[in-house]
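To close the section, here is one more complete example, presented without commentary so you can practise reading it yourself. The ligand is nicotinamide-adenine-dinucleotide.
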Amino acid sequence: TAVPTVTLHDGTEIPQFGFGVWQVPADDAERVVAKALEVGYRHIDTAAIYGNEEGVGRAIAASGIPREELYVTTKLWVSDFGRAEAKAAMETSLQKLGLDHVDLYLTHWPAPATDKYLEAWQGLQDIAEQGLSTSIGVSNHLGEHLDRIAELGGRQPVINQIEVHPFLQQREVIAANEKHGIATQAWSPLAQGQVFDEAPVVAAAEAHGVSPAQVVIRWHLQQGRILFPKSVTDERIASNFDVFGFELTAEELAAIDGLEKDGRLGPNPAEFS
Ligand code: NAD
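Output:
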């Protein structure tokens, strides 16, 4: 299966579709990531706070897949926000992953109450300069946070990873990303499994003979977003990847757009710290 890539403003390419491992227990991470790699996923999204970087790293090492064919993302947790702290945290993550660099390193939340995300960003600029991460980006940033990073100058985020699914479509933040030339990654793209009984999703699934999860994945892909749904079930890991043989119609996409209800599942980035 040829997964499309998205070209980022630093000139690199990222596979548009990958595998996420939030809430995958440390003891399961090696098994599920090994399964994902076997099925064909080449883009893995983890984070220091997920506590499973070692398992991800073991699966990568055991796979024998050449490093340049893989795209690995991890994230800097807010307790390590600071220029020197970021560098130390990156080194810890690399050690756990068993890698000499990641493809993408993100600041995990802006945590505006502590006002340290600009210092953390300077840390990521250093990390990119040193080649420890090829690309750098942010997660859960709002337009105002992106504007301040732009004012700071220097290397700019290529990605903003935010909560996006049919119940929360984030038009405002996506417009802010586009203003800065930043690509959008959708986290909890399947609304953590809560969107599968909705009528437009069920109707499209029946029309194409696919699962509701596959429909929601296509809804993201056809709008150009990067996503990495999570599953710990072999059969779902495989079927979620089997999404490149059908296309939703404009009417089906629009009907799913109609599910918007400001339905945030995670914390509000303006308040979380
Ligand atoms: P998701 O929307 O990918 O949903 C995952 C859940 O959906 C599974 O646990 C399972 O219950 C269900 N599911 C998956 N495939 C299914 C299928 N084929 N059939 C039926 N049910 C199925 O949720 P997520 O894990 O929160 O988000 C994906 C990834 O996004 C995470 O693993 C993580 O990598 C990233 N993420 C990032 C942040 C952040 O702050 N940056 C926050 C949350 C998640």
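Once you have examined the tokens, check your reading against these statements. Residues 108 and 139 are 5 Å apart (CA to CA). The chain has a mean pLDDT of 98.
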